[in-house]
């Protein structure tokens, strides 16, 4: 009799937990970002960075005497941020809901396009050669589709170089137009166009304006 009573108590407790979980799901409402584009910062290693030999320090975060590997890591972080920021700005201006995050995933009941990649090379160029600075940035990029608990699907994988993206319209000043930051912005804009094409093909709605 005591065992039956204990079993009934446990069953009642489980039922209450199930009801509480259902109530929590109902209270959570629809997802805040039902059709989001998530941008990951592209990965790099200091070995893919070519520093400008005409300067003894990085114009981004370095200082005289900083070891080359540390300078390369600083340049790589700045370029990764610039590429992600340019992508986010261009996609946001096109009306898409965009999040820059290395950990975000689609909410329950939502779907996402996730953009990620790896830098193939980052070249600061020669900033003292006015008119022939030639900075460049190149990546291997990937776009994945995530929805619910289904396995992610790869929608596109491509290589792109900032030197192929000279036609992209990115807001940079004339003074900054020939440095690696400008090359990063051009590249980010070019990747954003690939992502926007994938979004249109998958009938991705723009964010409310």
Structure description:
The chain has 209 residues and is of the alpha/beta class. Helix content is 36%, strand content 22%. It folds into 2 domains: 1-30; 33-201, Rossmann fold. Strands 1, 2, 3, 4, 5 and 6 form a 6-stranded mixed β-sheet that branches. It is elongated and about 55 Å long. The N and C termini lie far apart (64 Å).
**Percentage of residues assigned to helices:** 25-40%
Q: How far do the termini sit from each other?
A: 64 Å
Q: Tell the overall outline.
A: elongated
Assess the beta-strand content as a share of residues.
15-25%
Uncertain segments: 1-27, 167-176
Give a short account of the largest sheet.
6 strands, mixed
Q: Helix/strand/pairing class, anyone?
A: alpha/beta
- The SSE order reads HEEHEEEEH
Radius of gyration, CA atoms, in whole angstroms: 24 Å
Number of domains: 2
* Extended strand count: 6
Level-1 CATH class name of the largest domain:
Alpha Beta
CATH topology of the largest domain: Rossmann fold
Descriptive labels:
alpha/beta; 22% strand; 209 residues; elongated; 2 domains; 36% helix
Write the layout of secondary structure elements.
Blueprint: H1 2-28, E1 35-39, E2 49-50, H2 68-93, E3 97-100, E4 111-123, E5 136-147, E6 153-161, H3 180-201
Parallel strand pairs: 1-3, 1-4, 2-4
Antiparallel strand pairs: 4-5, 5-6
């Amino acid at each position: 009799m005591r065992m039956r009573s204990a079993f009934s108590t446990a069953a009642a407790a489980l039922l209450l937990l199930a009801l509480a979980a259902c109530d929590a799901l109902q209270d959570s409402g629809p997802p805040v970002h039902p059709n989001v584009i998530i941008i990951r910062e592209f990965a790099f290693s200091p070995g893919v960075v070519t520093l400008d030999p005409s300067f003894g320090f990085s114009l981004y975060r370095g200082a005289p005497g900083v070891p080359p590997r540390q300078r390369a890591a600083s340049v790589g972080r700045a370029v990764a941020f610039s590429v992600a920021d340019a992508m986010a700005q261009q996609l946001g201006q096109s009306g898409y809901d965009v999040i820059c995050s290395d950990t975000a995933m689609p909410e329950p009941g939502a779907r996402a396009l996730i953009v990620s990649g790896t830098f193939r090379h980052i070249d600061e160029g020669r900033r003292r050669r006015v008119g022939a600075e030639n900075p460049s940035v190149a990546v291997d990029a990937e776009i994945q589709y995530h929805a619910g608990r289904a396995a992610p699907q790869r929608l596109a994988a491509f290589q792109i170089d900032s030197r192929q993206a000279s036609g992209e319209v990115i807001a940079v000043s004339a003074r900054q137009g020939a440095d690696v930051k400008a090359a990063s912005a051009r590249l980010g804009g070019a990747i954003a166009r690939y992502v926007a094409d994938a979004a249109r093909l998958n009938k991705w709605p723009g964010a409310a304006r």
